[in-house]
Amino acid sequence: MNKPLILVVEDDAPVRNLITTTLKAHDYRFQTAAAGEAGVLTTASQNPDIILLDLGLPDMDGIEVIQRIRSWSNVPIIVISARSEDSDKIDALDAGADDYLTKPFSVEELLARLRVTQRRLAAMNGDMTGRESVFTNGKLRIDYGAGCAYLGDKELHLTPIEYKLLCLMAQNVGKVLTHTYITQKVWGSSWDNDIASLRVFMATLRKKLESEPDSPQYIQTHIGVGYRMMKVE
């Protein structure tokens, strides 16, 4: 199977060269763009499998790039940015990013994120053997075959990581899953950055899942430990 085509949208030449050298060393196919507009046009013309996107681009903010691409494509977008505040991550995720990697980053962490994204793509393309086809819990319904989740009659518009988190919680209803367990399952690692990202993703997932996030019905936080999906009658 061919490695996925990865589009690197990064204006900082040393960072761009580090990423592309890493991709080349691991036999990934890649293309580059040094500005947001070029990134959008390359996405439209080359149909990459994964996008690695910097937010601080010379012609437009990366958030706008995400929004423009999301208007017609669900290609996985991994943000790689020096912006490390939770608010920056939430803005990117709300715009439609699938993952967020903070600079400076290690080559090993970048490769791990790519592997996880590849596995997630394979799973969402129907590799769901060994599971019941539909999960229900109260008004929540997950159609594993279709890769979709619903709350009542309304489809939840989830990013791939939000969907994977929701599925992981659903497969362990009533169990407290530790931060380490979740990050290992979702990212394949337990770096501090992963646990920080987990908090952000859980916050965005709750906004979509819970009618009252301050009084959660489905996902309960166990402070300092992890999260648990509660059984809803």
What does this structure look like?
- With 233 residues, the chain is an alpha/beta fold.
- It has two domains: 5-124, Response regulator (Rossmann fold, 3-Layer(aba) Sandwich), CATH 3.40.50.2300; 134-229, Winged helix-like DNA-binding domain superfamily/Winged helix DNA-binding domain (Arc Repressor Mutant, subunit A, Orthogonal Bundle), CATH 1.10.10.10.
- 42% of the residues lie in helices and 21% in strands.
- The chain contains eight helices and twelve strands.
- A five-stranded parallel sheet has the order 2-1-3-4-5, with helices on both faces. A four-stranded antiparallel sheet has the order 6-7-8-9, covered by helices on one side.
- α3 (62-70) links the parallel β3 (50-53) and β4 (77-81).
- α2 packs parallel to α3 (62-70) and α4 (86-95) packs across α8 (192-209).
- Residues 127-131 have low confidence and may be disordered.
Key features?
2 domains; 21% strand; single chain; 12 strands; Rossmann fold; Arc Repressor Mutant, subunit A; alpha/beta
